[in-house]
Design brief:
This protein has 11 helices and 13 strands. By secondary structure, it is an alpha+beta fold. It is globular and about 50 Å long. It has a single domain, classed as Extracellular Endonuclease, subunit A (Extracellular Endonuclease, Chain A, 3-Layer(aba) Sandwich).
């Protein structure tokens, strides 16, 4: 069944009335069936991409996000969440203390799952795609972000714990402003045969930079190439390390979106501490560029004209 067919059937089943969050989340459990969580994606549609076998790709409904998991890379290709003021409020009491990532048993076969040993002493953070802090208003939803189906290997210092976290924080602030609610799609970009060049003339936002590859040279991580084993060993069935991360932010009220693409490396020293927004803005790219890099088409539920406008244009964005 195509995403478009699934979308139409889902809307018919729920009478065109999307479920509210977090009430819908509280009444479900994680399940490998996207029709069980239309409140998370039906308004924008699931990303569409090249056909993949059922043992290679699976879509999983979690409580506050839906993950398109790639069983070959052992990581999500994309994660969709609805960022809402009550959930993302920084004053929320939910905490991530004592939380550890764990394997997602909904991923079958088991060989497609990442496990803690893959990340142990790998030199990479377990990088949330749907951030835990987006759910500080609900402990149950926050806890549910700690699955490897919501994580990719990210450089820690200078990226996951700094500039990427700043981007996540700014997106949360947007949801408490005039936009009120946002759809956010996050995912990895992987290295190709050659360094990936974003050319100004080909990107609607005028972006121009090169994605050169994993910072420490590891294309994937597994117990065999941990720092305590042989860091130079190659993993035949490890967790793929992305060369970059993308984040797409969609405002359903005005049907417009912007995207940011940042290299998975330390960005320390590349921008003054008081110029974080300006540095992030330099990494704005068009949705079309993200689609070209990932092989996915986004916003399948929108009409073709709107999809084309979103894909080909560069939406301006302000975090302040």
């Amino acid at each position: 069944m195509s995403t478009a067919d699934l979308f139409r059937r889902t809307l018919a089943a729920i009478g065109l009335a999307l479920c509210a969050l977090p009430a819908a989340a509280q009444n479900r459990t994680p399940v490998a069936d996207p029709s069980k969580c239309p409140d998370l994606w039906a308004e924008i549609g699931l990303p569409e991409g090249k056909p993949q076998g059922k043992d290679k790709f699976i879509v999983i409904c979690h409580l506050g996000y839906v993950s398109g998991h790639n069983n070959v890379t052992k990581a999500p290709d994309w994660v969709i969440e609805r960022v809402r003021p009550k959930l993302a409020d920084a004053t929320g009491e939910a905490t991530r203390e004592s939380q550890d990532f764990h394997a997602d048993e909904l991923i079958l076969p088991p060989s497609g799952r990442a496990v803690p040993a893959d990340y142990d002493h790998s030199g990479f953070d377990q990088g949330h795609q749907a951030p835990a802090a987006d759910f500080k208003g609900d402990q149950k939803l926050l806890d549910d972000t700690f699955f490897y189906s919501n994580s990719v290997p990210q450089v820690g210092r200078g990226f996951n714990r700094s500039i990427w976290r700043s981007l996540e924080t700014q997106v949360r602030k947007l949801s408490t402003g005039p936009r009120d609610e946002l759809y956010v799609i996050t995912g990895p970009v992987y290295q190709q045969a050659r360094p990936i060049k974003i050319v100004r003339g080909a990107d609607a936002c005028g972006a121009e930079f090169t994605l050169k590859g994993p910072e420490n040279g590891k294309a994937s991580i597994c117990p065999a190439n941990s720092d305590e084993a042989d860091p130079s060993a190659r993993c035949t069935n490890g967790v793929a390390v992305p060369v970059a991360l993308f984040k797409i932010v969609y405002d359903a009220k005005v049907q417009n979106a912007f995207a940011v693409l940042m290299e998975n490396k330390s960005h320390t020293g590349q921008y003054p501490s008081n110029r974080t927004f300006e540095y992030i803005k330099k990494h704005a790219v068009s949705i079309g560029t993200i689609e070209d890099l990932t092989g996915f088409s986004f916003f399948s539920a929108l009409d073709e004209r709107r999809q084309r406008q979103i894909r080909q244009n560069c939406a301006t964005f302000k975090f302040h």
